[in-house]
Amino acid sequence: MSDHSPSETVPNADAIGPVLGRTPSGVFILTASSGDGQETGMLASWVQQASFDPPAITVAVNSKRYINNWLQQSPQIALNLVGESQSVFLKHFGRGFEPDQPAFEGLSTSKAANGATVLDDALGYLAGEVTAKMKAGDHVIYQVQITAAGSGDKLESEKPMVHIRKNGFNY
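Above: the chain sequence. Below: its structure as tokens.
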């Protein structure tokens, strides 16, 4: 990854940044395991439906995150949909976790059919398997085929949280 800021290396960065940053995205908690029993969760906002049949989504993960290695070893994941009133998840997962830290301490969780951790209080979840990946600049984009889903009590009554950034060159 480059040590330069995008404003130094991207033509028209001053025009691109504000508009790109205002591109809305959802807020999710991606959960995964290492394959040897360790589990973690991370904030993910670059998630998009990619296919109707089979149902699939894409999710982008910063290349520097250790979870990239885990997704190669154990490709089963869950994406937990965060609602507008659920800022507790942002506070909990916003700082990130080291591989040996308990990511779900104090939260009510269960397991999806694929074994991935599900946050019981999320609006809902999509569980699936990573089926492809692609390098995209400073991120890796994973294609995930959805194999199961579940919904919480607030799925129909609460709006999903939307993330809008001030600048398209950082979180």
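The chain has a mean pLDDT of 93.
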